[in-house]
Amino acid sequence: MADLQDHIPPTTEVGEDDGLRDGSPPVPAPFDRGYEPPGELLERAHTLLAAHPVADGYSGLPWALGNLPWYDLELGEAAVDTDLPRMRQGHVGALFWSLHLPDKAQDGRTTAATLEQLDTARTVIENHQEGLRLVRTSGQVVDSHNCGRVAVVLGPAHAAALDDSLGILRILHALGLRVLTLAGTTWAGLSGLSRFGEEVVREMNRLGVLADLSGASPATAERTLVLSRTPVLCTRSAARDLRPHPANLPDDLLAALGAAKGLCMVPLTAEQTGPTVPDVADHLDHVRDVAGPECVGLSGTYDSGAVHPRELTDASRYPHLIAELLRRGWSETELSLLTWGNVQRVLRSADFMARAAQQRREASTARITDLDAP
């Protein structure tokens, strides 16, 4: 799958006349341009999100900010989809900051480019300490929210950033990395995980780095689900049964992800979920029904270059989506899991498993040349 951030064009709304990519007519929806959901539903949505804020599974903000000569997220920044005023308006409590790179940055210097992304992310956080906080654990996420700050979780990053070295994995983790996408390497490819790839997953479990399977091959995803002792993420995947995008998941993989207590974070992009709020809600309904309410989360994918559905054009618009789910009969318990609880559960599990694994297992010294020798 091509990375979501191959280029960062100005984000646009899907027009009212836009049809689906398969040529079918636009879906009639209650949330067309300029439409506001009924006040009672929107008020309920704001009340629920005040107690259970959004943990957004994918943001391209570090890369987008790296292209700007100057910015101020506290005052508001019109050049991006995400700033602190809009996150407060949308009740965003935690944000996964992607360290993914455009293809042109992967020509022999993926590790260096990833470190530069990480440095940019840390600099942005340091310059906005009143609103942002770098976190590493589930407890720090809660503390950050209680202090009125948005918790920033670093990742996902490309597995290619490891340069086939477990030592680099440990260094990236020490610098704050919490999520790694298992795709696009010799050890996590179309044929699945190699012996070295399996060792990478074990070391990720020992460190508490979560595996991201969005864009991974079916063989890699299936083997990782079996091998990992920590729940895995799909940071930007919807239901392939509803929209045949290569990053979306078929029902059998969704069911397996649910059985493994993993998390499918549905992206708010027109390409993967459709051009309207009800389209996005259809995917959330489907993932909940197939994988269970504990397997579904949200992935804004803002500032990634993606086109977003009407009424979901930036990080302030989450209440509109929650209002639609309330209209459909989602319970407050299900919504609290969707927005906050499921991400917290996965982070807590990773923290617990890492502490346990570090008591039983030393840092791996395995090399790819030893395990994957021809």
Automatic annotation (TrEMBL):
<feature type="region of interest" description="Disordered">
    <location>
        <begin position="1"/>
        <end position="37"/>
    </location>
</feature>
<dbReference type="Pfam" id="PF01244">
    <property type="entry name" value="Peptidase_M19"/>
</dbReference>
<dbReference type="GO" id="GO:0070573">
    <property type="term" value="F:metallodipeptidase activity"/>
</dbReference>
<protein>
    <submittedName>
        <fullName>Dipeptidase</fullName>
    </submittedName>
</protein>
<dbReference type="GO" id="GO:0006508">
    <property type="term" value="P:proteolysis"/>
</dbReference>
<dbReference type="InterPro" id="IPR008257">
    <property type="entry name" value="Pept_M19"/>
</dbReference>
<dbReference type="InterPro" id="IPR032466">
    <property type="entry name" value="Metal_Hydrolase"/>
</dbReference>
